[in-house]
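Q: For a teaching session next week I want to show students how multiple molecules come together into a single three-dimensional assembly. I've collected the sequence lines for a complex. Could you give me the predicted structure tokens for the whole thing so I can convert them for display?
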Amino acid sequence: MFRYRISWSQLAWLGHRLSGIGVLVYLFMHIVENATLAFGPSVYDTTQTFFRNLPVRLGEIVLMAALVYHSLNGLRVVAMDFWPATTRWYRPMTYAVIVGTIVAMIPLGLIMITPYAPWNGR
Amino acid sequence: MDVQLRILRFDPERDDLAHWEEYAVPAEPSDRVLDLLHHVKWYQDGTLTFRRSCAHGVCGSDAMLINGRNRLACEYLVKDAGRAISVEPVPGSQVIKDLLVDLEGFWDKYRSVMPYLVNDEVPEDGKERRQSPDERERFDDTSKCILCGACTTACPSFWANPDYVGPAAIVNAHRFIFDSRDHATEERLEIMADADGVWRCRTIFNCVEACPRGINITRAIMEVTRQIEIRRP
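A: Of course. Below is the structure for the complete assembly, covering every listed component.
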């Protein structure tokens, strides 16, 4: 077995795959969660209560990060598909996707964690 | 100074598995990794096996996995590689012995893209097929390929699926697809549109980073992909 030196573009591809699989798994969970409505309001309410706590919210923040990254990196891949000349900037484009995800997640993470934050009386 | 050279050795007549062997090799910073391999073969262990021909970055026969990345041993200098250097055969290939790998599959894929000019018409002046500088420029980048295989064997899609035609074959298809004198564009695009053709590219850019000629291989692959999409009815 060989070990090839990891580059940012390899990590970008790996991150795209993992975030894609993660979002897909969440989608199935989301469908199951919503489908509990078919068993009546009380079952649905119980399920909703089960999903409203800090560990699940932290998971949702990771999910949001996966969505933001997958979207931005997807745009990068689409750009290279439609305009092959953009491949010459593949390194700065990869860095931009990573920085963009981090920058977007600062306000998004804050907004999402606020209902559970100590400064909010929790 | 001495360089610690680690080489992944494999002799099918003696070994079940490949193993690392270390050599202390005297070297100057301006020496190439190929010089170190020569020193081992000529003065320390004559059984070391590897390919090399021109030794000047033109023939492309000494592509190897050096310090974790595919490179030409004849182009990579000790001052860039450091004093501890590891050398392995290119990844994803059947090792014949030591650093020598079986490239038959690589050549089969290269041949499959018809890497030659197809034009049975007689030139207008009866002598030569003229081309404007702009028409020549269209495939200039891909005409630089020396078929070393560093790109194809660095490609994770190729590691996962050895049937993938691979970056090197696509680069050579691109060289003729965009040649205004060539008449077999449709046939080549059909080969490229195969399930094991250009669609296997995941834009990971290992090929671009491995290419000793600096060819923007992913751009070439994307340009071929666009041609297939544009021409699709």
